[in-house]
Amino acid sequence: MSTSSFSRRTLLRSIAAGGAALAAPSVLAACSSSGTKHDVSNAGKSLTPWPAYVPFAGPAADLPGTADGIQPGYLSYPKNLVSAVHDKPGSGQTIKVMTISYGTPPKSASQNKFWAAVNEALGVNIEFTVVPDSDYMTKMATMMAGNDLPDVINLGGGHTLPREAEFVAAKCADLSSYVAGDAIKAYPNLANLPTYAWQDMGRIAGKIYGVPVQRSAPGNCLWINNDVFTAAGMKDGWTADDFLAVAKAATHGKKYGLGSSQPALFGADVHPLAFGAPQEWKLDAGAFVSAYTTDEYRAGLEFMVKLRQAGLYEPNVLGTSTVDCKTYFYNGTVASMPDGFGALTTSVPSIKGAFVLDAAVPYTPSNGAKPGMDRARGIFGYTVLKKATPDRIKLILRVLEYLAAPFGTKEYELTHFGIEGTHFTRDGQGSPIPTALGQVENTVNLPIKYLCDAPQVLYLPGQPDAVKRNHAWQTKVAPMLVRNPRFGRQSETSTRVGAAIETLRTDTIGSIVAGRKPLSAWDETVKKMRAQGLDQIAEEYAKDYATNH
Fold it and tell me: In order of start, what are the domains of the chain with their CATH numbers?
């Protein structure tokens, strides 16, 4: 393990998120420049109605989905695409956007045929600022503290930004009158976003400030090389001891059963839930209980230490980026990686048939608890708009509506696959298969999908068997999914000190699992987190919950 790499990354995250000490005061000053404190709580406020839900009557799925987020599965591509947008949203305007990215920066629109085609279809010139995941906290803190905001900002990727809700309330457009209730019907593709996505985005001070980027039910999971894990003895109904034995059998030479990136933190979103811990919070008779205070969470950390002590993780986890971790997984250096469910659609083509990709079913833990798995927040994040005139707001909402065009439409094909003959060709069944250029110019490197997107479906071009396998897995793990009751709630204390608490948590977990600190250090960290505001956050979430129930 590279200690110097870990120290540098920790310093960067502490500077960005410790927010508390550095980023938060400047952001707070920006939010309070008018001299008015922005109360972000929903408790005691008049609540804006959620947007009406008007589902799109698209192609019938081969494998059924569910209303709460199990994806409908499609074994083949629709043959007759329809148009979901009949007029260009814009007429030559420039829109500046800022969003997170997990790929390499795209070439400029003049050299990028995908970007140019999207601009042409939208009738606008999108100027992108793409922020790598590793720099997100730093760049966002700088942007939020300044006055030169882009027109469109994606807040997402699972990061906890200091003073986020206060920034939104102070600097961003209140969209309530444009999207609440039946008003959303002016934007049919946004009306097709499920209600749970709006609810998990939540209100701020009773108002709707953003447009959600919808996600399906499965959340962070452990992706496995099924060929390796099966050969190593993986079986249905496995236990924690079985998991350890399989990972040990898959580890030999310079190949490891377990891989992880530094952000994924040895699978800290996988193993504690498998040991029965809540996902961040548990709702108990209206009270919020932090997962980090539970015996189950501690037991999950102890198991992670056991896995590391057995030499089953690739040694440089805390110096490994998300991109590098994926590379190790694809080339067989590691036989598993913790990642979000969205990794499915990018991993299947990246593997190029080298092995069968699956997500693991949670093992039964040794503490007798019911095994669980992360149920995703119903959104990747949400998109907010800089305050502007009503005409400007409506223009940008039309752009977002185009990006939300659903599966089975011509607009979806463009925004997800590009131009036929340039970015994709069709196989014998009509599936769009990426060309060499399409593997470079796409929504990974030009992340328009993080500004707005269609409701997700389970479709993998030319891979019907992979669709069947994953749909069966989704159905199997559905009863195990553990929801975070904090989704959609507001806490003033969390927006003020939540980033610092999160940094304390992740730094401690990294040090414990890496072997620098004993497991007992976790108990001291829990005390510090509670003293720094965790207990107050619990009270504020409970008040917000009571307002909505």
Answer: 13-217+378-462 (3.40.190.10), 218-376+483-548 (3.40.190.10)
Contacts of 142 (CB under 8 A, 6+ apart): none
The CA distance from 474 to 441, in Å, is 30
Going along 203-300, which residue ranges are E strands? Answer: 210-214, 221-225, 281-284, 287-290
Q: What does DSSP assign to residue 252?
A: B
| pLDDT of res. 37 | 58
339-to-17, 261, 460 alpha-carbon distances in Å = 22, 9, 18
pLDDT, one tens digit per residue, over 107-139 is 999 999 999 999 999 999 999 999 988 889 899
Tens digit of pLDDT for each residue in 355-386? 999 999 999 999 999 999 999 999 999 999 99
Q: Is 3's pLDDT higher than 80? A: no
Q: Residue 386, SS3?
A: strand
The span from the CA of 190 to the CA of 312, in Å, is 45
What secondary structure letter does DSSP report for 33? T
In contact, 436 and 443? CB cutoff 8 Å: no
* 74 within 8 A of 455, measured Cβ to Cβ: no
Residue 4 contacts by C-beta under 8 Å, 6 or more apart in sequence?
A: none
User: Is residue 236 packed enough to be buried (19+ CB in 10 Å), middle (13-18) or exposed (0-12)?
Assistant: exposed
Question: How much is the CA Rg of the chain, to the nearest whole Å?
Answer: 23
Q: Is 346 exposed, middle or buried (0-12, 13-18, 19+ CB in 10 A)?
A: middle
Which residues have C-beta within 8 Å of that of residue 392, sequence separation ≥ 6? 151
Query: Cβ of 487: how many Cβ atoms within 10 Å?
Result: 19
Q: Are 232 and 249 in contact (CB under 8 A)?
A: yes
Q: Which of 72, 160, 128, 119 lies closest to 407, judged by CA?
A: 72
Instruction: Assess contact for 461 and 425: CB atoms under 8 A.
Output: no
DSSP string, 164-212: HHHHHHHHB---HHHHTBGGGGGSHHHHTS-HHHHHHH--BTTB--EEE
Average pLDDT, rounded, for the chain: 91
- Measured between alpha carbons, how far is residue 324 from residues 211, 319, 321, 535 in Å? 31, 10, 5, 37
